[in-house]
Amino acid sequence: MRYRGCEINAAQVTQIRQMMAEQPGLSRWKLSRKLCEAWEWKQANGALRDMVCRGLLLALERAGAIELPPARRTVRNYLVERLRPAPVVADERPVTGPLSQLRAALEMQQVRRPPEEGLFHSLVEQLHYLGYRQPVGEHWE
Predict the structure, then answer these.
(1) Rounded to an integer, what distance in angstroms lies between the CA atom of residue 29 and that of residue 75?
(2) Cα dist from 139 to 3, 112, 116, 134, 135, whole Å
């Protein structure tokens, strides 16, 4: 089986099964950490590749290769639970006139952290075909 660029063979699946059989009280989190330690599966910064390993374990379970212990807790996804931006009434009258006159009236403004940020999010939510999505990861400010 291939998972995220790694080839997982039958001996490794057997090793996972043995680890679970020898320590039946292991949580999914502890199992993934022990597996990372056993396979020396680390990131470039030395941290264990714990999240990737948990994804591998879930993929193996879905494929019917292993049976994981029941999940002990559910992690909340706050991005999914967040409130949508409040709707605002926007002036939708068409802007007309020569570009040379409009250019003088246009103003570009950063909307990160000022009071207008909420207005921006609301307008994107209402008017953009994809709606508003909370930015994730690195983005330019």
Answers:
(1) 12
(2) 28, 11, 19, 11, 7
